[in-house]
From TrEMBL:
<dbReference type="GO" id="GO:0046872">
    <property type="term" value="F:metal ion binding"/>
</dbReference>
<feature type="compositionally biased region" description="Basic and acidic residues">
    <location>
        <begin position="145"/>
        <end position="162"/>
    </location>
</feature>
<keyword id="KW-0464">Manganese</keyword>
<dbReference type="InterPro" id="IPR001932">
    <property type="entry name" value="PPM-type_phosphatase-like_dom"/>
</dbReference>
<feature type="compositionally biased region" description="Gly residues">
    <location>
        <begin position="71"/>
        <end position="84"/>
    </location>
</feature>
<dbReference type="Pfam" id="PF00481">
    <property type="entry name" value="PP2C"/>
</dbReference>
<feature type="region of interest" description="Disordered">
    <location>
        <begin position="57"/>
        <end position="87"/>
    </location>
</feature>
<dbReference type="InterPro" id="IPR015655">
    <property type="entry name" value="PP2C"/>
</dbReference>
<keyword id="KW-0460">Magnesium</keyword>
<keyword id="KW-0904">Protein phosphatase</keyword>
<dbReference type="GO" id="GO:0004722">
    <property type="term" value="F:protein serine/threonine phosphatase activity"/>
</dbReference>
<feature type="domain" description="PPM-type phosphatase">
    <location>
        <begin position="87"/>
        <end position="458"/>
    </location>
</feature>
<dbReference type="InterPro" id="IPR036457">
    <property type="entry name" value="PPM-type-like_dom_sf"/>
</dbReference>
<feature type="region of interest" description="Disordered">
    <location>
        <begin position="145"/>
        <end position="175"/>
    </location>
</feature>
<keyword id="KW-0378">Hydrolase</keyword>
<protein>
    <recommendedName>
        <fullName>protein-serine/threonine phosphatase</fullName>
        <ecNumber>3.1.3.16</ecNumber>
    </recommendedName>
</protein>
<keyword id="KW-0479">Metal-binding</keyword>
Amino acid sequence: AASRRGARSEEDIMADLYATRRRRRCQLEEAASGSPLLDRLRRAVASALRVGRAAKKQPAVTTPATNGGTATIGGGGAIRGNGENGHAAEDKVQWARGKAGEDRVHVVVSEERGWMFVGIYDGFNGPDATDYLVANLYASVCRELPTDHDPPPPDDAGREQRPPPSSCNGRNSADDLIRRRGRHGAVLDALARALRRTEEGYFAEAEARAAECPELAMMGSCVLVLLMKGADVYSMNVGDSRAVLAHRAEPDLTSVIMPPRHRHQHSADGHVTEEIRRQFDECDMTELVALQLTMEHSTTAYKEVRRIRSEHLDDPACILNGRVKGSLKVTRAFGAGYLKEPRWNKALLEVFRVDYVGVLPYITCKPFLRHHCLGPRDKFLILASDGLYEYFTNEEVVGHVEAFTSRFPDEDPAKYLSHEILLRAARQAGMGFHELLEVRQGDRRQYHDDVSIIIISLEGKIWRSSA
């Protein structure tokens, strides 16, 4: 392949690159118009519901609505068929979870809106915050994104916020680009508003119940949300759960593709052409690489620690023993009012209070937001709470899923990852795997954190598991 490229000029190579981008965008627009991925994912979710009920030997429940409604998996145990009014049915199936029941997974495939919503809520100090998120966050997203303001049609092919040099018909104006980016930004802003208003509702309820349940001020949750429509993926997170995209590697040409006015400086010795060839030769385009779509909000992130310390110069103990006020590892979270306002801290029993200095919040619920446009090189998405990443790097997770699905295409890679976590947790605790399994589900938290995993194949499959 390298020898064949040698006869090509720099202009030929660049023309091929741009033509490939145009073809990719045409393919994405055609795929999005019929939304075949959404149809396949809807069927996969329905299949997951059936398999989950059979595995748990639960009685049959109402099937998910298909007449313009939604198919929903509620990770706290709720499985609902939602009609157009958005109100859930009462049918429930309980999933195995930790002693405190703090983790929730919420998956909604909406035919009416043409999107899929995935939420992973990793709670702490109790289950109320995560229960509130499952019951209210998606409904709030629907209010903030009414049907006539749904996410825009697909943008560029696989490069976040970078347009191709031309569209399918050869025209691509700066105004079009600004309009598309503005619409993507509007979707992300709507997700952030939905989260903020959901938290406001949670605190209003906590205040109304403060006399009977002051501990609500301590409860909170990490939030990871993914909204998929066509080729567009919108992600939002607070805390340390992650969304990781697995995609095929491609050569990095950012350092060699220069503006046309500079190319003549190197055209004599063919510098640019040779560098492009080298990048193609060195890049293994069959390899899957990991792209993290979320941002880490924990005391392991230097920027987060620096931000908190700069906001609390009069409190040298704002970060203590690797935790915010010696209490919480995450630096952003839903709820957890005792680290956001002095009044919530004062409402707690003295044994649970922190030494709150001043009035500024120690943690916030300000989310990290990102838009990504899926391309042909993108293969699958992995969404998981932080327990997975206590044992694996992003690259290891992608490698394990790729190897497992290649060898066992009909098996469940999410359950495989859960199994691997238990193996590593048992080894770390000096126990045998079966010894760990004999420990009661709730008591295992002294050996490993609760883990929720969702894997979405862009071929239209979805798997979920917990450990």
